[in-house]
Amino acid sequence: MVGDDGLARCPWGASHPVHLAYHDAEWGMPVHGEAAHLERLTLEAFQSGLSWLTILNKRPAFRAAFAGFDADVVAAYDDADRARLMADAGIVRNRLKVDAAITNAAATVALREEGGLAAFIEGFRPEVGPAPVTTEDMVATSAESVALSKALKKKGFVFVGPTTMYALMEAIGIVDDHLVGCHRRGCANA
């Protein structure tokens, strides 16, 4: 889809101003550091069953509620923190997802002994990535996202199913699912 600015984009990226900003500046771009990886993993888990627009609109509140996704801080959250999070209208108030965020922060801390979350996820980068021409060419999972899901579950992570992990891989540039012809195609390699 070609926007008013003359740039070709993935259709979803032109569907709303918030989507456009995310598509053009962030989706498919590599992220750096543990907190950035934990944020994306957490947000993808919270998105399950909801629109991505909902999550993007609540992102500042998520960052505040989860201490900038500092794994040490979030891993130490207790019942009072859980109650605070469940009362926070700025985020998605789902008990299972809130608990998952805390569990995954603790698993992230533990994973440091093996090189950390970023390196762990990177280990599942496909040798050859997709090159979708249309949205119909896009998939929701891959062999690598299934393997990443299973490996993270073995490390104590939850809410990390294959579809959620594929979305994470797209978000952080491990998989480039910008359509062929999109002006952001190849941005992960920039």
Describe the overall structure.
The chain is mostly helical and 190 residues long. It has one domain: Hypothetical protein, domain 2 (Endonuclease III, domain 1), CATH 1.10.340.30. Helix content is 50%, strand content 0%. The chain is built from nine helices and no strands. Helix 2 crosses helix 3 and helix 2 runs antiparallel to helix 6. The radius of gyration is 17 Å and the shape is globular. The mean pLDDT is 94.
Task: Describe the SSE topology.
Layout: H1 17-25, H2 34-47, H3 52-65, H4 71-75, H5 79-86, H6 95-111, H7 117-122, H8 143-154, H9 162-171
Helix pairs in contact: 2-3, 2-6, 2-9, 8-9
Text of the CATH class: Mainly Alpha
Please state the CA-atom Rg, rounded to the nearest Å: 17 Å
* The named CATH superfamily: Hypothetical protein, domain 2
Number of domains: 1
**Helical proportion, percent range:** 40-55%
Order of helices and strands: HHHHHHHHH
Sketch the major β-sheet: none
The span between the termini is 22 Å
| CATH topology-level fold name | Endonuclease III, domain 1
**Which structural class should the secondary elements be placed in?**
mainly alpha
How many helical stretches? 9
Average pLDDT works out at 94
Low-confidence stretches: none
CATH architecture: Orthogonal Bundle
Strand content: under 5%
Let me know the number of strands. Answer: 0
Tell me, briefly, the overall form.
globular
Characteristic key phrases:
single chain, mainly alpha, Endonuclease III, domain 1, 9 helices, 0% strand, DNA-3-methyladenine glycosylase I, metal-binding
